Amino acid sequence: MNFEARLAADKALIEEALKGAFRGRTPRADIYDAMNYSLLAGGKRVRPILTLETCRMCGGDPAAALPFACAVEMIHTYSLIHDDLPCMDDDDLRRGRPTNHKVYGEATAVLAGDGLLTAAFEIALEGRGDLAPERVVEALDCLAHAAGAGGMVGGQALDMAGEGRSLTQSDVEELQRFKTGALISAAAEMGCIVAGGDEEDRQAVRRYAGKLGLAFQIRDDMLDVTGDEADLGKPTGSDARGEKTTFVTLKGLTGCAQMVEKLTAEAEEALSRFEHPEFLTALAHELVDRTN
Amino acid sequence: MNFEARLAADKALIEEALKGAFRGRTPRADIYDAMNYSLLAGGKRVRPILTLETCRMCGGDPAAALPFACAVEMIHTYSLIHDDLPCMDDDDLRRGRPTNHKVYGEATAVLAGDGLLTAAFEIALEGRGDLAPERVVEALDCLAHAAGAGGMVGGQALDMAGEGRSLTQSDVEELQRFKTGALISAAAEMGCIVAGGDEEDRQAVRRYAGKLGLAFQIRDDMLDVTGDEADLGKPTGSDARGEKTTFVTLKGLTGCAQMVEKLTAEAEEALSRFEHPEFLTALAHELVDRTN
Fold it and tell me: How far is CA A61 from the centre of its chain?
């Protein structure tokens, strides 16, 4: 199967699993509607694809990684809902549609986020099947620490503390590592854990994901300046309006393009110990060339 | 050790563990301060005490249950922070002190809640020690489902949907079962799981906790009418002002007192299969006689 076909197959698998995640659940309140509204709004599904494909690359069955893939996407989605709240970034549009609180109100949006964060653990635990409990525990340990105050939540706190202040490149890199890097890294590492990869495999996968995550963020900052609003599904120029220090304000567009190129090469190199890194290598390149 | 002494010993153990939970963590933002502000604000610690003591009653070592006890208290605390937000119940006081968002602002309060919810899983996973991974997985499965949209989060959504509407007794009981009962039940059941209790043990413990949780809520509704603000650390009469249907508006104070008595007797009876139910029986009585 070539890269495009496998990417499409992975996405279809993930969409189907996410669609079914809350089918038939109670209580009869609109909370699942609000959760699904954001969870099923499309998106690139980069994190769950990483989980499935690192599992495959490390010799595991991607089907066993699917619940963990869904979990990481739920955590990503909850973070978007909470970040968009009026008391946070106060955004009206996300993936081309009104943000969660614009449709369901703030209270429900807070709860939908809480529900998705919790559902990540529910879904991974109830979908564990025959997977060895040690691996379930290891994978969730990895996920929880990446998502928490020492990872993504801490990154969002740092981000808010930094708004309007002038940051150095190392501040911005630290921020990225916490705010988006940690979860991307966990997404990849969980696939490796599910496959039974050893510590060296995990380290290599973390290194790959670290490089990819940083390149991804730099590309995001570039698209906020050069991108097309219709392609992105959100307004551009938001960083500049918020007076945020980004990789573009620090390094310029040309400097950013060079960083992205270097990081992508390093990501590729990190996978050299694996027999079949082709898909994940192609994915790194794909993310760098994207326009949305 | 008599009831009072053991209760004090359990509380001391829990306070100490919660105090140390986030020691030395990074990144350097005020997020851990905000998390600790609410987590270490006192409170009865009913849920973690249940976890420790059901573990002991089922023949396990309460020390092994301590990380799970901390986890359930973190989830309880996060739910209070989010429930107090302006877009939810908009409360200014909690346990006699300004609510989290009053001190740290709304954005940080949202993140502190998110951080505590995630930390529940972090703390349980990193504190698992030699506990069999199957039991870790079972206990977290129990916790996640109780906390999520099919449990506590769903209950809060139901509660908000019901505000200003007239509810029947069965509506109010359903609401309680989701909003507070599910987590209390999970707190108790996790202790039993850690101890290696069988399905009948778990069922008995759930039954006990279900009765206790309902009695606890009825008592809460009574205290909102009859309680002393200084004792409670929060304003009374809030239910009446919010035009909420409560057990008191449905059954009156006398009817409530009778329900509480009956439920406490049933909770006691649910533990008849265990050799040493004395502490948990006494706890049920203690919670019913409380004035805060």
Answer: 21
Torsion of CA B169, B170, B174, B177, to 10 degrees: 70
Where are the alpha helices (H) located in B3-44, listed in sequence order?
3-20, 31-39
**CA B105-B111-B112 angle, 5° bins:** 85
A3-289: CATH superfamily? Farnesyl Diphosphate Synthase (1.10.600.10)
Is residue A239 within 8 angstroms of chain B, CB to CB?
no
pLDDT at A162: 83
Query: How far is the C-alpha of B147 from the C-alpha of B182, rounded, in Å?
Result: 7
Note whether B61 contacts A: Cβ–Cβ < 8 A: no
For chain B positions 65-94, those within 8 Å of chain A (CB to CB) are 78-79, 82, 85, 87-88
Report domain extents, chain B. Answer: 3-289
Choose among B147, B149, B160: nearest Cβ to A35.
Answer: B149
Q: Do B115 and A154 touch (CB under 8 A)?
A: yes
* Residue with more model confidence, A241 or A76: A76
* CA B103 to chain CA centroid, nearest Å: 23
**pLDDT for the residue numbered B75:** 98
* List of chain A residues whose C-beta atoms are within 8 Å of the C-beta of residue B148: 115, 118-119, 122
Chain A residues with CB under 8 Å of B182 CB are none
> Helix (H, G, I), strand (E, B), or coil: what is residue B20?
helix
Could you read off the pLDDT of B170-191 as tens digits, one per residue? 999 999 999 999 999 999 999 9
Nearest-10 crossing angle of helices A31-39, A106-126: 80
| Beta-bridge partners for B93 | B98
Answer whether B153 sits within 8 Å of A115, measured CB to CB: yes
pLDDT at B284: 96
The whole-angstrom separation of Cα A256 and Cα A24 is 47
What's the pLDDT at A240? 61
The enclosing H or E element of B41 equals none
Shortest distance, CA A158 to any CA of chain B (angstroms): 6
pLDDT digits (tens, 9 = 90+) for B47-61: 999 999 999 999 999
Interval A164-208: pLDDT, tens: 788 999 999 999 999 999 999 999 999 999 999 999 999 999 999
Give me the residue from A25, A85, A125 closest to B137, CB to CB: A125
Is the pLDDT at A233 greater than 80, yes or no? Answer: no
Q: How distant is the Cα of B148 from the closest Cα of chain A, in angstroms? A: 5
Burial code of B28-45, b = ≥16 C-beta within 10 A, e = fewer? ebbbbebbbbbbebebeb
Average pLDDT on B260-287 reads: 97
Quote the tokens at residue B237. Answer: 């009469």
Say if the Cβ atoms of A111 and B157 lie within 8 Å.
Answer: yes
CA distance B159 to chain A (A): 10
Distance from CA of B36 to the nearest CA of A (A): 12
Secondary structure string (H, E, C) spanning A162-181: HCCCCCCHHHHHHHHHHHHH
Q: Is the torsion defined by CA of A227, A230, A234, A236 positive or negative?
A: positive
Averaged pLDDT of chain A? 93
